[in-house]
């Protein structure tokens, strides 16, 4: 079975993010009222409760905040074990993202990392993380 068998389940808020990611654009939401950056996408600002926002494209750069080694075979055909990292974004410090680790060695807490896009097909790309620079 291929990786295409399991796809992200999108909703009203997350679908535009996945569309951007498929175009290899990395963005978070920016509140039009107070400027708060947020991820994952949601309808209202958690600071000022207004529903007005826009996408803001940022660099997929951040620091490793945590990581796990998964031995659970969620994806048929995926190689276990694999590493999932939690990254705090440098340009949006309130935002964390999760993704697969693509470094040669294990990640280190606080390590500077950069996201890269792995295209599954034309409609789906995943953001993976590896050492920056
Ligand atoms: Zn706001």
Write a brief structural summary.
With 133 residues, this protein is mainly beta.
Description:
It is a single chain. With 133 residues, this protein is mainly β. It has one domain (8-131). Helix content is 6%, strand content 40%. The protein contains one helix and eight strands, in the order αββββββββ. It has one helix spanning 15-22; strands at 27-31, 37-38, 53-57, 61-70, 82-89, 96-100, 112-121, 124-131. The strands form two sheets. It has a five-stranded antiparallel β-sheet with strand order 6-5-4-7-8, covered by helices on one side. It has a three-stranded antiparallel β-sheet with strand order 2-1-3, with helices on one face. A hairpin with a 6-residue loop joins strand 5 (82-89) and strand 6 (96-100). It is globular, with a radius of gyration of 15 Å. It starts with 14 loop residues before the first helix and ends with a strand. Zinc ion binds at residues 31, 33-34, 36, 45, 47-48, 50.
Distance between the termini: 34 Å
Task: Determine the mean pLDDT.
Answer: 92
Strand content: 35-45%
Tell me the total number of β-strands: 8
Order of helices and strands: HEEEEEEEE
Cα-based radius of gyration, to the nearest Å? 15 Å
Ligand list:
zinc ion
Shape annotation: globular
Compute the number of helices. Answer: 1
Low-confidence stretches: none
